[in-house]
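Let us practice reading a record.
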Amino acid sequence: MSHAHHSVPFSVSEGPKKDYIDELERQAGKEFQLHLDKLKAVPLESKASSTALAYKAENKRRKDWIIQKKLPLNESSFLLYLVDRAKGIGSSALSKISAAYQAANQGISAIGATFVSDVIKSKRREEVQCKKTVVEVTIQDVEKITKRAMDEITPARDRDALLAIFSFHVMLRASEAAEIRWEGVTQKDGMIEVHVEKAKNDQLRLGRSSFFNYKPGSDADILMCRWRIYSGGKCPYVFANLDGSGKLTKSSISALATKMLAAIGKPGATHHAFRRGGANHMRATGYSMEEIQARGRWRSLAGLQRYIKDVPRAQGCLHPQENGIGVEEDDEDFE
């Protein structure tokens, strides 16, 4: 499925940038209106479509807040807005607000940049201090969930186990899992292709494909066949309500994941633990960071690195079993 890459036809400039365009407009006149319209749009048209739309939304939200508070539309009001938003959002969202402001303006003053940096750093420090202990989810946990579904044979268990398998091996975010369609799941040559329609690293909004190895006749294959037959084409989305009335929402998927993980002895684990666990499983079994980044649709290696824990194999050290040091021949940990 293809999506056209639309331009962003609106003026986004503020402050000195806007004054500059206004003066140019007075000097050039209507003869150059098309040129002027292009200049008004290029600050965001130079960005990827998804980024441009996100920046437009952030700037509108900021302007609405400033107007509501009866403040001037300037850098000082932006700083007050940033501090106000910091009460309820994370450091990444604050960084996006700052980037959107700077795209519409002539950057930011040196003193203003210092305050912006300090607000974001302060929020990051707060996040680190408040961070909950991460509950790890492993391939063995996914196998436990799969076994429960195979033993109980109910549509709900089949769907939930399939969610665990996909979320772990494709490293799905809950928002991505909610958008997976049956037409986007293809089985061939011992692997599955999963088309993720709305991925964070999909700057052109074309969708991304992730692949994982998948044996025909395996428990995962049986679960997917059973759930597909039960669904009967009532809903185009893979993870749907049991009655086929519609797709599960992001929050419903998160709640299901938390419930199924608690049931196997992992209380406190969230849906995101599947994504983190899948990345660490790939790393521990010898995949490169670039391969994990591609399959898990991370925007950058730096973003992925926060998920990866230190293990010998990730640092080029072979597992003792692979060197045949004091082990039995039937060890299967790394086969």
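A brief commentary: The chain is about 55% helix and 5% strand.
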